[in-house]
Amino acid sequence: MLSCMIFFCSCGDTTDEVTAIPTMPVPTSAASAAEPSETTVTSASETAASSEETTLTAASETYAHELHTAPDAEMIKISEPSCRAAAMYCTDDDTLLYADNIHVRTAPASLTKLLTASVALKYLSPDTVCTVGTEQSMIGEGSSICYVRPGQELLLSDLITGMLMASGNDAAYAVAVNTARALDDPNMSDEDAVSFFCGLMNGFASEIGMTESHFTTPDGWDSEDQYTTAADLIILAGYAMTVPEISSITNVYEKDVVYYSGESNTWHNSNKLLDPDGVYYRPDVTGLKTGTTENAGSCLIASFEQDGRTYITVVVGCSSDDDRYVLTLKLADMIPE
After folding, report:
1. Is the whole model's pTM more than 0.70, yes or no?
2. Distance in angstroms (rounded) separating the CA atoms of residues 316 and 151
3. pLDDT digits over 36-89, tens only?
4. pLDDT in tens, 158-194
5. What is the CATH superfamily name and number for domain 7-332?
6. Domain locations in the chain?
7. 49 in helix, strand or coil?
C-alpha cells in the first residue's frame, strides 16, 4: 500500500483539523452508462416519466472514513499564492493530503455547474432534447456564456458540454429549466422552474454528503444565501468524476458540437491546465472545473492521475487566474511518489 504524507496549512488564526470525508458514492447511472446500448433521442417529459421509478440509492449513501494521518506527518505550508481555502485529496484511499481552511464558507462560482450537471443527469437521459428559451433573460450581466440562443434545441449532453467546458451560464439556466419542467409542470414560469431546480440541487448535495453548502442559482452567480466550502467541493468533485457524462467532458480542451436543431459550435475548456499550447499544461490533468466571481475570487477544482491513482485539488479565493493555476500546480507537486 502506498504511504502518503499529510500536509497541513493554516491561514491567519484559522487552522483546519483533519476530519472524516464521506466516500464518493458511485451513481447507478454511471454503471449503466458504461454498458453498450442503443442510442435513442427522447423528449424531456418522456425521460422524466421513465425515470420516476428510478432511484439512485448509492447517491444517498455516504460512509465516513478516518483519514490516514501519519504520526510524523511533515508540516508544509504553501504561503504563496494566497487563497481563501485549498485542499488535496486522494480518491483511492479516501485520504486528505492537504488542508487549508477547508470548512470556511466561500461563494461557489461556476464550480456549482458540477452540481447542476449531476442533478440533471440524475433525472434525465443525456439524449433528452432540450429547448433554449426565455430563461436566458435571467443570466447575470457579464456572464460567461457558450452562445446558445432561444429557440435552439440541443441534447442535454451537449448543453452540459457547453456549461462545463465554456462555463456557459446560458447553458446552466437552460439545463435547470428544462429539467424542472420535465419533472414537474411543463408550463411553470422560468423563475419557478429555476427555484424548483435549486431545490433539487440542495437535496442532491445533502444526499452525497455536502453538509456545508447551499445553492440558489444553477450557474453559481454570486447570491447572498449561496455558499460552499472546500471540504464540500471535494465531495462534489469526487462524485462528479464517477459520472461518465461529466468526466468525459471536463478532461477535453476542445470540442465541436452540432446541435439537435442543426446549428454548430466549437467550445474550448476554460481550464488552462488542459491547453496543450498553454504555459500551465499538465499531461496528467483529467479535469475538472474553473470558477470566478467577485465574491468567490478565482477558483479551480482540478484532478490528476499519477501511477494509477486519482487526486483532486481545490483552490478558492485566489486573487487572479494565474494564482489559481500556480497554487494548483504546487499542490500537485506534493503528490507522493
Report:
1. yes
2. 36
3. 333 334 455 454 544 443 333 344 344 333 333 333 335 478 989 999 999 999
4. 999 999 999 999 999 999 999 999 999 999 999 999 9
5. DD-peptidase/beta-lactamase superfamily (3.40.710.10)
6. 7-332
7. helix
